[in-house]
Design goal:
The protein has two domains: 1-48, no CATH class; 57-111, no CATH class. The chain is 43% helix and 4% strand. The protein has helices spanning 32-44, 57-72, 78-92, 97-105, and strands at 25-27, 30-31.
């Protein structure tokens, strides 16, 4: 197994500069040195300037839809739900007006249609 970030492995461990010890597996595919670095960088995200991203409108719509779907998952982390919703609704606001309203329907579970529901198919 290799670390997904630094590529160290069981034979070639990173040296932890804080402890002087070789790294160990913090989780599958992530060594302890990289795990600590990731944690520090995640905590520092609030201090970073806003990111500017340009997306084609279709990809923007796909991201909003994907966020809506992901947030339906029963194990979606409540700790990030508010942030994901805030980002997705800001993206949604950049769509044309009709698509904004259509995308807004995706936040309301009463608009959910079970897959394979015969009443949603034309001709039934």
């Amino acid at each position: 197994m290799n670390c997904a970030i630094c590529q160290c492995d069981d034979r070639h461990a990173c040296l932890d500069v804080e402890t002087g010890e070789p790294c160990h597996w913090a989780s599958p595919g992530l060594c302890s040195v990289c795990a600590r670095t990731v944690q520090a960088e995640l905590l520092g995200l609030t201090e970073m300037p806003p990111a500017n991203v340009e997306l084609p409108a279709f990809e923007l719509f796909c991201l909003v839809s994907a966020a809506q779907l992901a947030m339906r998952h029963p194990h979606f982390p409540a700790s990030i739900a508010q942030s994901v919703y805030a980002v997705a609704t800001r993206l949604q606001a950049q769509l044309p007006p009709t698509l904004q309203r259509f995308a807004a329907m995706g936040w309301d579970r009463t608009n959910d249609v079970p897959v394979g529901n015969a009443s949603t198919q034309r001709g039934n």
